[in-house]
Every structure is written in C-alpha cells, then in structure tokens.
Amino acid sequence: MKINPIYRKEMTVRARSSKTAVIVTVFNAILALVALIYMSYILGYARKTGEIQYSVFLTIFRYITWIEFAMILLIMPALTSGSISGEREKKTLDLIMTTGMTPTDIILGKLLTALSSMFLFVISSAPIIALVFVYGGVTIRDLLLLFLCYFTAAFLMGSMGIWFSGMLRRTTAATASTYGLEGALLFGTAALNFLLRNLSAITEVSFGLLLFSPLATFYDVVNRMTGSDGIAQVAVNIFGLSGNTFLTRNWFSAGIAIQLLLACLFLVLSVNNLKRSRNR
Amino acid sequence: MIEIKELEKSYGKTRALTDFNLSVEDHALFGLMGPNGAGKTTLIKIVAGLLTPDKGSVSICGTDALRYPRKIRNLIGYVPDYFGVYDNLNVIEYMEFFASGFGLNGLKSRRRCRELLAEVGLEDKENSYVDGLSRGMQQRLSLARSLVHDPEVLVLDEPTSGLDPGTRYAVREMLQELCIQGKTILISSHVLPELSEICTDIGIMDRGGIMTTGKVSEILNRIENSNPLRITLLSGTQTAMGIFKRNPYVRSVSVSGKTFMLNFDGTEEDEAVLLQQLIDADIPVKGFMREPGSLESFFMQMTSPQEEKVILRNQ
Lengths: 280, 315
Description:
The complex is a heterodimer. By secondary structure, chain A is mainly α. Helix content of chain A is 80%, strand content 0%. Chain A contains 15 helices and no strands. Chain A has helices at residues 5-16, 18-49, 54-80, 83-89, 93-97, 103-124, 126-129, 131-135, 140-167, 171-198, 204-208, 214-225, 231-237, 246-249, 251-276. Chain A starts with a helix and ends with a helix. Chain B is 37% helix and 27% strand. Chain B has 11 helices and 14 strands. Chain B has helices at residues 40-47, 69-73, 91-101, 106-119, 135-146, 165-180, 192-198, 216-226, 237-246, 268-280, 295-303, and strands at 2-11, 14-24, 29-33, 55-60, 63-64, 76-79, 153-157, 184-188, 201-206, 209-215, 229-233, 250-256, 259-264, 285-290. In chain B, strand 1 (2-11) and strand 2 form a beta hairpin. In chain B, helix 3 (91-101) packs across helix 4. Chain A binds chain B through residues 2, 5, 8-9, 12-13, 16-17, 90-102, 278-280, and chain B through 45, 48-52, 69-70, 73-74, 76, 78, 80, 82-89, 93, 97-98, 100-103, 105, 145, 149.
C-alpha cells in the first residue's frame, strides 16, 4: 500500500519526539483526575448513605467528554498551525515542492498526521470514558456519535490551522489566527445570537449560524445522551424560538454536515494557496 | 537542454528578470555568474518550477516547464543555497522521504539511497541525524537528495557557499563527474575561479538580464583581447608615441617611464602590424604583450556601474 510520504515522515518524526508522549500523558491525566475525584465523591456518598445515584455517573461522563472535547479544540490548532509555515521556516517547503508530490498530497499528509495524533489521544482515553459502562446509561451508538463529533471538530480545526499555516509566513501568527477564528466560530456565533435576542432581532437564520459551531453540535449530542436539554430546548427557553423546526429536529446531522463541508472548503483553499505560492 | 526565452519576473515594482534569454546545451556544465540581486536565484527557482514567471517560456528537454510542471519535476534535481533540516530524522530516512516523493519506495528506494550516499561519501553516516551533520556533509547530502530520482538536469544555487576548501573541491569533483555521466548542470555561483575551472559554459547576469554567454575558453579568449597592451621600450619613446597616435586601433595611451599601456581594440594581426611598425622605426622593444585577464576582472568590467564599460557582443 502506498502511504503518503509526508504522513510517513511526520509520524516517524513525532514518534521520536517526547512531545506526543507528554501530550498523551497530560491529556489522560486530566481526564483521569476528574473521573477519580468524582468516583471518590460517589463512593464516599455511598459509604455514608448506602445508596448510589446512577445519574451521577452520567454527570461524570458529561464532564469527561466536555473536558476531552475542549482539549481537542485546544490541541488541534496547535498541531496544525505550524504544518506549512513550519516547513517554510525550516526551508524544506521548496524541497518538497520540487518532488513529485502535489500540493494536495502535502496538505492531506499534514492533516492525516494531526488527525492520527488526535485519534491516539481519544483512543487512549477510551478506558476512562468506559467507566460509564460500569453502571450503564450510555450506549455504543451514543459513543460512536460522540466520536463523530470529536472527529468533525478535529477535522474542522485542523483544516483551519493548515489554511492559516499556508497563508501566513510565521507559525506564531498562524496559531494566533487559528485560535481567533476558532473563538469566533465557537463563541462568536453564540454571542451574536445573545446580542440579537437582546435587540429582539433574533431569527431562525441567525440561530442557524450556530450550526457552524462544533460547540453547539457537541452540546446537543451530549445533553441528549445524558437526558438533559438539547438544542431545541435552548431555542425555546433561551432565545424564545420554536423548538420544532427542521433545523432543531436535525441539528446533529445538519451541524456535522456543515462543519465537514466547511473543513473541506478550508482544505481546498489550502491546496490552492500552496499552488499559488509559485506566483509570488 | 534548457531553453529560456523572453523571461520576465517582477516582485511588485522590482523587476527581477527582464527579457531574459538563455540556452544551455545537453551535458553542459553551465555556470551563471552575477552580483547580488542580479536575478540568479529567481531564474533558478523558475527553472526548478518553484516560481511562475510573468512572461516568457522555459523548456527543459523539449518539455514546456510552465505548462507541465509535474513532468518537469521528474527531469530536474534542485539544490538550493540552504539546507532544509528536519529534526529527529536520520540520513537514510531523509533520503527515503524524498525518494518516496518521487514514487520510489521499499527496497528499490533503500538501494538507490545507499548508492547515492556512497557516491557522496556519506555511507557511514546513514544513521546519523541530519541536523547533526556538518555544513559540508549537509551539502553533500543535499546533492545526493537532488539525484534520488535520477534527473537529467541539475539546478544548483550557490552550492559551495559557506563550505571549506576541501568540501568545495569535493563538490566540484562530484559536479564534473555528474557532467561526464551525462547530466546537464546549471549552477549559479559567486566563486568565479571555481566556475572557470569546472564549467564548460558560462553566462554573466546583471540587473535581471544576461550580459554575455559562451564557452569558457571563448570568453577567456575575448577577455584577453579586451585587456590593455603592455609595451616596454629601451628608447625612442617620442617616436613610438607618434606611431601609437597614428594607429587607428589605439584608443588611449598611458605612460610610466619606458612602459606604455595601450587600450588597443585591434586583432592579433593588428598587434603584429603595430610591433612591426615599432621595429621598422628602429625602436628597441623589450616587451610586447597583452595584460593577462581573468574571469574575475571580466566579471567586474561587465557588472560594475561605470558608464564606460566594455561590452562584448555574444558570439
């Protein structure tokens, strides 16, 4: 099987670096710490009262998945925003560009590397997430939806990082810009809706902007999984909109589709950007 | 063969190349000389497919380089004036990475990479990390990398800059060997004696254009003819001055004692006639010769910003 040369090289380099090991350790240590603290709280309560509240396990699940999701959102831009600018800084981009590799090969190689690292982080945390199976409440289907959500967010943030990395010469500028756009997508869309609500100008269209935010998709899927309010209730209770529209009924699939499309758009732009670098 | 026609490239308002034409024969080792900012690196990058010109055409081995850049990449090996380093990658992995970029994988790739490392004398460094190699070793590795896909044309930008004399000599030997093996080599350099020693052809660039090109032997010959005539007499300086004034090829004369320096633009036959005139006038001639010229002095003449500079027509 022909493996993307960039992917193979990057995986070799990353495997030798202590950075990956450190990130995996910190990533899982944070998740394990939260799980342990909660478990000790539950067991302490059980020792006193002789009863175990099953809903608390779902709360652990919710906290762990939220923390994991937040870490994915934080780590992914850092993994990708130096991908092209780093090659430029190391003066290796020109050398790669004179090989038979196309800009698409280069961009996909970089993205695959970042997604593989992310996959390693998520898979290594599976035993901690699996705690919830001890007492039930979450199904395999739920977990698969959760992983799809993780993948989509990682794909989107990774593509954004690569795009900025190709556009800007310096890695620091690319990293800052990626986090800036990420912030705008995650919190800007929500802030805009709150502002419009306060101005009594909120509409279904402006609410639909939240589909671009992986945070809104994640909120919907995790809350529905753990029996809390989904995005439909947010539309009704917070923004005073209808909770029974096409969008709110199909929020998860629509959100995932839009974010995947957006990620693909960033990838296409990155490839074009690399092609156009010859004209500069 | 590399054929460049009417090439133009600007960076904003700065014109890097203006109506640039160049032809490099098959199996030639062509040296491109020029001062900083002459446009050498821009030209090399365009030939390597890293830059697109604003106008003009580049053809390599009969293939339009601008229309078929992917095809061209298989024909060209590029060595820049720097070495791109990857941390945590050893020499053989570095080579194999670039080999896989050209679709060479597995045992075939390993064999080819080892072969090239042996050619550049790095066979014992296979497992060393590239960032730990000396500058000279990195440059030799860079040369090996550029040959991984066995290209027909090698394009090198200042390949010996920053190298010690020993490594410089080794790189020059390698380039000559590659030329003998049938590669066409285009090399840009500031180190002029180096170019005159190894190149079969040279071209002089200045302000984005080509000033002159030709075989090294021809250019050195033309340099000789453009240098002043040094004539030393034992006596008869006044009579000699009269002869010089009447000669149509003498442009100017400077005198220091009994030694005359003549700006003389005649041929070797005209020089012989002048010598004969001096002898016929019974002037004892002690010395009569052209000042020896060098590629360096010629380069300075061609690229110095003086108004009265010698311009030679391309042959």
